[in-house]
Write a structure and sequence with these properties.
Length: 71
């Protein structure tokens, strides 16, 4: 699927599910448990989401991620 120029590319169902769960306030471990996948798989989805042009921001408490915000 192609997106209009300058627009993020569409996500797969798994990537979309990962995005929604992270945006709901869950962290990587929680998303992995919810989706019954490894933490590595969640990080791979996150990398692909970013690669497809979606913004990925993290809220930090020192060096610890407290929340992901994905546009």
């Amino acid at each position: 699927k192609k997106a209009a120029k300058g627009q993020p590319r569409p996500l797969t169902d798994n990537q979309q599910q990962t995005k929604e769960l992270l945006n709901s306030g869950l962290l990587i471990d929680d998303v992995a448990t919810q989706l019954k996948v490894s933490r590595v798989r969640v990080y791979l989805h996150l990398a692909q989401i970013k690669k497809k042009g979606h913004t990925v921001n993290r809220e930090l408490d020192g060096t610890r991620v407290t929340r992901y915000i994905i546009g």
